[in-house]
């Protein structure tokens, strides 16, 4: 049996890199940079005011000064403030020549066309100087960074017209099982709604990828092989669910065992023990276990890092640390990925039970607490690493 870390490493080492494409900076969110991004410009681009107020020569204050200029943001004139005067200036407006500080409007007394400055001011007060944040040649973001919305201000402002990124993966999702029906269907006894298909598709989109196929196949090896082979040339990644454990009708195993294309593994994790992986016609196939909670856990713990590796991002699994607000017992010796909810004070408590079929319980959970193999039961106050659910 492999540990989750060993299996994750195996996946990350075997997946191919996604192709590099050029995109405008504004479209880079969710993609991973294939090259360092270097600024071509100064940021701020020019000395400008941090406040709505009055631009002054600091040495003149305290004083009452006439207002000689009015400078809104976006004023492109080349201006100089005459000696012995001040300029009304707005936040973001270019600082004119002849001044070295700004006094915010709340700290002055305006009377007619003059302004009284009651106190001294230090040179540079409320001035945002050119290049104080970023200078030409500075590396704004490094290759391998998955671009987040918070990084867009730098990317769209650094003077680059296009960025080299690894494009999102085209993901095909295939649910296996004769018992599955599309949501909304009338169900006969023994049938259930295919929840894994839409869930994997949503998780893949939340991870920044593009879902190009969502389908279902029955429990025959021929059908599974035919569908997977036909989607392989249209997808960068295939993610299946079901059919990988020890039953008599395990279609993934029946279709691919001993073919040399997919291998089947036991991973010491709960949920998510039975797993399959391989490369089919050049396309990696992640064969996840069928239980709905196992699918979510397998995706977040195993597939997300592998998708990141395909994008050239080798950062370790992202977790946050939280303290247990309630105790819970481990279920067995495997590493446990326990469903937890965040408490109002930032701790976590168990949520949703531990059965891999408990989709009602899963709906009330916010993330997975990682309880390493061999560690004792969790006591109140213990620190645990938590993988937050996307969107929670
Ligand atoms: N004898 C053994 N039985 C089982 C073992 C084992 O080691 N020995 N492992 C158990 C574990 S752990 C898991 S996890 C499951 C994995 O089974 P499969 O990957 O073969 O999945 P299925 O049998 O096809 O389905 C399991 C369960 O999940 C439901 N399911 C499947 N697909 C969907 C879907 N798309 N949407 C919603 N629900 C789905 C399915 O109806 C089953 O109830 O095996 C254990 N058994
Ligand atoms: O390992 Mo299975 O994924 O517990 O339910």
From TrEMBL:
Domain of life according to the entry: Bacteria
CDD domains recorded: MoeA (cd00887)
Protein name: Molybdopterin molybdenumtransferase
Pfam families named in the record: MoCF_biosynth, MoeA_C, MoeA_N
Entry similarity comment: Belongs to the MoeA family.
SMART domains (UniProt xref): MoCF_biosynth
Keyword field contains tRNA-binding: no
EC number: 2.10.1.1
Role according to the record: Catalyzes the insertion of molybdate into adenylated molybdopterin with the concomitant release of AMP.
Domain MoaB/Mog: start-end pairs: 172-309
Reaction(s) this enzyme catalyzes, per UniProt: adenylyl-molybdopterin + molybdate = Mo-molybdopterin + AMP + H(+)
Keywords carried by this UniProt record: Magnesium, Metal-binding, Molybdenum, Molybdenum cofactor biosynthesis, Transferase
Gene Ontology cellular-component annotations: cytosol
GO biological process, one term: Mo-molybdopterin cofactor biosynthetic process
Signal peptide per UniProt: none
Cofactor(s) of this protein: Mg(2+)
Record organism: Branchiibius hedensis
Pathway(s) this gene product operates in, as recorded in its UniProt entry: Cofactor biosynthesis; molybdopterin biosynthesis
GO molecular function: metal ion binding; molybdopterin molybdotransferase activity
